[in-house]
Fold this sequence. Notes:
Domain EGF-like: 46-96, 97-128, 150-192, 217-261, 263-301, 302-344, 526-556
Strand order of the largest sheet: 47-48-50
Protein name: VSP
Transmembrane segments: 567-591
Largest sheet: 3 strands, mixed
Keywords: Membrane, Transmembrane, Transmembrane helix
Number of helices: 2
InterPro entries: EGF, Furin_repeat, Giardia_VSA, Giardia_VSP, Growth_fac_rcpt_cys_sf
Amino acid sequence: MGGCYRTGSQPGSEICTAAEGGKCTECNADNGLFKNPAAAPDAGRECLLCWDTTGANGYKGVDKCTTCETPDKEGAATCIECRDGYFWDNSVKTCQACDEKCETCTNTGATNCKTCKPGTYLKGAQCIDGNSPKCDAGTYADSKSNKCMPCRIENCATCEYLDKINGPKCLTCNEPSTNLLKTEIDGTTSCVVAAKCAVASQPGTHFLSDSNDKCILCSDDKDGTETNKGTPGCRTCTKSGAKPTCSACLDGYFFESGSCVKKCDQSCKMCSAATDATKCESCYPGYFLVESTEPPGKKCVPCDDANSGGREGCSACSNTGGFKCTDCKANYQKEGSQDNYTCKKTCEDVTGCGGIAGACDAAVVDGSGNTKHYCSFCGESSKFPIDGVCVNTGSENGNTCKNGVCTQCTTGYFLYMGGCYSVSTAPGSHMCKTAGEGICTAPSEGSRYFVVPGATNQDQSVLACGNPVGTVTGNKAQSTKAYVGVDGCSQCTPPTDPAANGMMVATCTACEAPKKPTGNGVGCAACSDANCRHCKADEKCGTCNEGFSLEGGKCVSTGGPNLSTGAIAGIAVAAIVVVGGLVGFLCWWFICRGKA
Length: 596
C-alpha cells in the first residue's frame, strides 16, 4: 500500500521471499501464499492468499484453505491443507467440516480425527469421551495429549493419569498374587515381586504386610491393621513380625524417640530442633545456609534474597566458600559462567509461560517507555494468558481461551498478542483506557498505543506506535487488513481503515530521543539539532521549530538577518580589531596622563 519492503526482514519477508525489478518473484508458502501466475499481475497482487476467494487476474484461493499450490490455469488454487476443524474433500474440491469432537482431522474423512477437542481423547482415529466409554484396558486418558495412551508400566493391568507425576499411575497389577503394587514417595508406581519390595529385618523405603500381599511405604499409616501401619514422615524402616520401626525420617522431619512427628522449618532439609528456623543443618533446593546472629544459629534463606547475600532471579545456589548461583528462575535468563550465573529478567510470568513450550513475547511499554514482556502462549494447554500471566482453567474471567491462548475477550478486556488484558489493571491499563465487548475503544492517556481501526473482539484491537511488525484484522479465510506502527516511534495517530484488503501505517508524531519523525511521519531519523521539528534523514532537518528557518539542512534563528559563514567570520575579525585598538588607546591615555 504505497510502500517498499525488503524480502529479507519483517514485515516484507512474511509475504515475499525473493524479488527482482521491484516485483515479488517468490511468495512465502509457509504463510499461506501462492504466486499469481498471470503474465502481468496487478500491482501489489503478485502473491495471493490460499483463502482469498476474490483473487486477481482470474486466479484465486479456496475458502478455509491454509496451504495450497499455484493453479495450472485460471481458477482456484489446488488446496493441500485446510484450517483447523476442516479437511480437504477432493471429490467436491472444498474444505469440509470435521466431526464436532475433532479438533483436526485427516483428508480421508470427517470422522478420521488427528487431534481432539478438550474433554475428549483420541482412540485410534476417533475422539471419545474421557469417562464413558473409557479407554481400553492397559491404556489411560492422557489429559496432556488428549489421547488414550498405553500404561507402559511393566505388569500393570489398569492405570490412570496423575497430575503430580505428569504421567500414568498404576491401579492394579497383572497376577496380583505374584505382582505387588509399589508406590513411591513421589507418587510413581510399579508392579514388583515380594523380594523387590522389602527384605525382613533390613532397612528400606517399604515393608511387606503380615500376609506378604501388600508392599507398603514406610510413611503410609492408612492400613486397617495396626501392625501394617507405617509412621508419617518416615523414610526408611524395618519390620519383623511386629509394627515397622522407623530408622530415618524424610527430609524436613525431625527424628525424636523413634518417631517423625515434628517438622523442621519449611526451608530446612535437616534440622537439630523442630520448628526453629535457626537450627537448620542443611537446606532444600532453592535455599542456602547462612549464619544467624539474632537469634544465633544457622538458617536457610532463598537463593534470590539479595538482602541476605543471595542474587535476584536465582533458583539454585550454594554457599560453600562464598555464594554461587547455579541456576536461574524460569522467567530469568542465565548470564556468565555455568557454576556462578547472574540472572536477567526476561518475563513477568514466574513460570516463564510454561518454559520452552510457551512464549513470552507480548511486549508492553508503559508511559515512561519501559518495556516488559508477558505471555503470548502458555506451554500447558490447560493454562491461558490473562493479564500477561498463565492462569489455570476456570480463571479466564469470562474470556474465551483454549490450547494455551485466548481467541476472544469479554467486556472490560481486550485481545493483545494471544492474551486477554483488563483495562483496570496493569499491564492492560498501560495500553487501553476503555474496552467494550472485548474491543479496545480508546488508548490510555499519554500511552504509546493506538486503537486498530475496524477490529472485532477476535482481533488484536490495540498496537504500539513503535511496532513495525503490526497486526491483522479479519478472518484469514475471508478478508485481511494489516496495520503497522513505525520503528522507534513513541507517539502517533492511528492509520485509516482501508476500504479493501491491504496494509496501512500509523503516522508518527514523536520518536524515542534523540530521533525525530520524518516530515510524513513514516519513519524516525537521528536529529541532534534541538531546533529541528522533523528530520527527513539522519542529521538532515526537513522543517524547523517556530522562530527558525532551514538553511543547508540546519535550523538558524530568524531573530535577525541571516548571514553567511564568511560574513560572520568577517564581523568577528573586525570586532577583534576594534577591541584591540580601544585597549591600546586606553593604555596610552593612562600612561601619558600618569606622566603628566
